[in-house]
Fold this sequence. Notes:
The protein has 342 residues and is α+β, with helices and mostly antiparallel strands. 26% of the residues lie in helices and 21% in strands. The chain has a single domain, classed as Double-stranded beta-helix. The strands form five sheets. Strands 1, 2, 3, 4, 6, 14 and 17 form a seven-stranded mixed sheet that branches. It has a four-stranded antiparallel sheet with strand order 5-15-8-13. Helix 2 packs across helix 5 and helix 6 packs across helix 9 (250-263).
Amino acid sequence: MTKPHREIITDPAAWRGSDIQNDDSWVLTLGNREIDEIDRALASVKARNVAVPFDKFAFELPSLSATLGEIPHRLEDGLGFVVVRGLPRERYDNDECALIYWGIASHLGTPVSQNARGERICHVRDAGKSLADPTARGYQTTAKLEYHCDLLPVDVLGLFCLRTAKAGGASFLVSSLAVHNVVLRERPDILDALYEPFHADWRGDQPDNETPWYTNPLYSYWDGKLTSRVTTRFVFESVVRFGEHLALTERQNEALDVVHEIAGRPDMRLAIDFRPGDMQFVNNHTILHAREEYEDFEEPELKRHLLRMWIALPPEHRRTLAPELAERYRHVEAGGIIKRAA
């Protein structure tokens, strides 16, 4: 494991929500010209019966592609997140939205597998599951999800909003770099614990010939960059079904509590007004996200529904990870989960 980083991070990504809540530089608003380009690209792939997966050359966006090409830089060297807004969601059915979403994402990088079934677009909606189920993933429930990054060291988390919930379900972002800064100022005594190995539950998605758990530190510092792997407590607690030796230590428990307490402070977080048609892209190495518990509609066609992608950035924009993360990154195909053999 890497040595703890004991200096304050001053990167643009080390923001506090209170500092940027009135800053809309992270919103990329589509105009009529960009939407027309998207419509032409969509019509082209449909006319040619092009199905997912396809590359950016199959979804041509002559003008918009240059703007989209700047997003990886904004994710890695800017605030760490971007919301693409303005797509008229009501104009498209769900399948068309998925094609558009994939086409946009292909101009940022390469979508990768998110589970052992090899799915690259996952449906974030209530599947009637509970976090008490050791094979359930958080996105399949209506439960509150505390601040976390997604399962593995994938570069970018992408979300496309198809429909919002009846009530609740608000989304929040927090800079994990800013959280680290607060730990350094207020609780330097627990800093070392954040760099220790934490055992986490694969929740049934481990690749073939892998143990059903994996090990990561919550933070690592390598090649001048701080990377976070903070995740939800239930992933660390359910791993004890494979042995008590995998349980959190008292020191790790306290460290995790401190991180989540800091992340939950009102001045740290940024509330995201997620609207139908919005596409959110987040640097999964530097930004934590959370969700409130929500109440859904009874009618299936009205239920809260997001599409999710994990995206590997092009090599020129991809950070160098610490050895304990880099080995797993290579093993799971640029952060994605290897599809199991049939």
